[in-house]
Amino acid sequence: MSSLDRKMDRILRREESGTARRGIKNRTLRKIFANKLSIAGFVIFAVIMLMCVCAPLFTQYSSTKVDLRSILEAPSASHIFGTDKIGRDIWARILYGGRVSIGVGFGSALIATVIGVSLGTICGYKGGWLDGVVMKLSEVLMAFPQMILVLILVTVTGQSLWNLILIFSVTGWPSMYRMARSQMLSIREEEYVQALKAFGIGSMRIAFVHMLPNAIGPIFVNVTLSTAMFILQEASLSFLGLGVPLEVATWGNILNVAQDLTILKDAPWIWLPTGIVVTLFVVSINFIGDGLRDATDPSQIG
Predict the structure, then answer these.
(1) Using CA atoms, how far apart are residues 147 and 267, in angstroms rounded to an integer?
(2) What is the pLDDT of residue 20?
(3) What is the pLDDT of residue 297?
(4) Which neighbouring-strand residues pair with 28?
(5) Non-local CB neighbours of 210 within 8 Å, separated by 6+ positions
(6) CB of 154 within 8 A of CB of 242?
(7) What span, in angstroms and rounded, lies between the C-alpha atoms of 44 and 50?
(8) Which regions in the chain score pLDDT beneath 50?
(9) What is the pLDDT of residue 216?
(10) Cβ contacts of 254 within 8 Å, gap of 6 or more
(11) 24 DSSP 8-state letter
(12) How far is the C-alpha of 40 from the C-alpha of 90, rounded, in Å?
């Protein structure tokens, strides 16, 4: 190696070390922070989550208290988003209702992920008759339009918060299963997996400890997208009067009043702020999911 080559190598190492000291060393975090839409999504998500979780700090009203002296009041200093047909404060209902709607979305996505990823990891690695049975079951569930299947199950089981979470979980795990299975089918052919087998390490340990972490990026992305989907489904069902019971404040139940044409035209403060909040929250989750997908995609290393 010539002296010029050695000098260029030293300059290159010095610049790389300077860049590492000035910036974020972790490639995934660096790509997430470089994505402006992802950062905007995180900010919107954090603000809405904080205000819903800490609702008593941001409103003095109850989400269920009826005040017949304040029926259909327009936005004012005392009720910043106005009141509904029985005098309940809309701002309070948005904050407290967000707790339920977000809880349904995250809870359903988490349960569906645990079921789908567990089955996908085992079946993708082991194969055999269990893989065939679970694959056929997932195909049967995915053959139905999901919203139609959810409506049928809600009609059969009845309206309640826990029934809704259970139904979303039952109808949502097949997509998680198929994604995890496809990842395992790809990873199990890697050389390190064959080496682990040669050392006599147990199948479940190889699958869950050594293989699954390498597929965790797409799983996180799918969790965010599923959460957004379940929140929208809850809002749709509650709008139709088939979701969480109407006495429970949720974003969908607030939007339910928009079925009344008079309310739709003459009292937009009842449904418009809620629709904006739902839209912002779902869009923020999608932005976060896009950022995670780009940051964890091995084909976009840089």
Answers:
(1) 29
(2) 45
(3) 60
(4) none
(5) 192, 193, 196, 201
(6) yes
(7) 10
(8) 15, 18-23, 299, 301-302
(9) 81
(10) 84, 90, 93, 94, 97, 270, 271, 274
(11) -
(12) 26
Identity of residue 184: M
Residue tagged 């989400």 (tokens): 63
Residue type, 180: A
So what's the pLDDT on residue 28?
66
**CA–CA separation, 53 and 302 (whole Å):** 37
| 153-167 b/e (C-beta count within 10 Å ≥ 16 → b) | bbeeeebebebbbbb
Q: How far is CA 103 from the centre of its chain?
A: 10
Tell me which residue of 50, 42, 76 sits closest to 61, measured CA to CA: 76
Local structure of residue 74 (DSSP, 8 states): P
CA distance 271 to 220: 32
pTM (two decimals): 0.82
Place of tokens 């909040």: 277
Read off the tokens for 295.
Answer: 């940051």
pLDDT digits (tens, 9 = 90+) for 136-149: 999 988 888 888 88
Look up residue 150 and give its two tokens. 């959810």
